[in-house]
Fold:
Amino acid sequence: MEMDSLRKLYVDELKDLYSAEKQILQALPRMAKKAKNAQLKQAFELHLQETQKQVERLDQVFELLGKSPRGKKCKGMEGLIEEGKEVIDMKADDEVRDAGLIAAAQKVEHYEIAGYGTVRTYAELLGERDAAKLLQQTLDEEGATDKKLSQLAESSINVEAAVEA
Structure:
């Protein structure tokens, strides 16, 4: 597809995020299962529910645009999830693996924050106010998840991993 307008780029970026969210829906249950820290496990399980709502919001955005969300594979998320699988499969103490899971999850969150910030801005520029509100809601959730992961890491998980060393 030729990218000759911001609207086409906007739709393409939305499709990328849709693919990313679908990949995350598959990865989060594995991460939750492997996490040993109860708070981390719960955070992954809650974010799975949140991600399902985020996919529904993207469906609403595509409906507003009269476009299909299908047709693109997010290679960036595919790589980040592959890195996360390496953490899941590594031979490590539970506390160290949990620290690695947080690192992998935060890479995903930062990717999403960048993507949602971009498409929200495009939506605003293109006069897509309803879409911009939906995208901002997801952007806020992604930021809150990132903060929650940082708090878990800094208050207990990374500290416990350091003691094991």
